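hi! just following up on the protien thing from before. the input was this:
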Amino acid sequence: MPEGTTAEYSNQILTIKAEQKELKRTIRLNRMDLKIEGNKIILSSKNATRRESKMLGTLNAHIKNMIKGVSQEFEYKLEICNVHFPMNVKIQGEEIIIKSFLGETTQRKARIMPETDVKIKGSQITVTSNSIENAGQTAANIEKAARLKGRDRRIFQDGIFMTEKNGRKI
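and the predicted 3d structure came back as:
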């Protein structure tokens, strides 16, 4: 772990803190051990089966994302594309409301996950969070809310599409 970052594990909850940011995650360890020694988090298992080895790798990735998340934010960018009808997208409480998608009279809604910031500027939507799961799930919820079913994608190109994940173009 980098300097200034602390970790604590008790009652199956791993807490990682740095400066004023804190991330918590429930980690269930079946036949595995998690130890915190100084600035290291040690995951281990005696006589691990193939499945337990895979779980150790998954937990390692989750812990790395938590450590990265307390030092910097994860950012997803989405683009609002409309060809046929102009759609209105706005934030209302803990939801994003999409109006007039392909001329529909009903509103489509996408849930914003906790501890996630969403900003709409023109046709650009920016989703930021310290938790990669919350940022990714919010971006997926927005993309899924504007999904098109039963139409030819070559003609109906309307929707909201992810264009960037953590600075990488998609």
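Residues 74-169 form a domain with the Outer Surface Protein A; domain 3 fold (CATH 3.90.930.12).
The CA atoms of residues 76 and 136 lie 7 Å apart.
cheers
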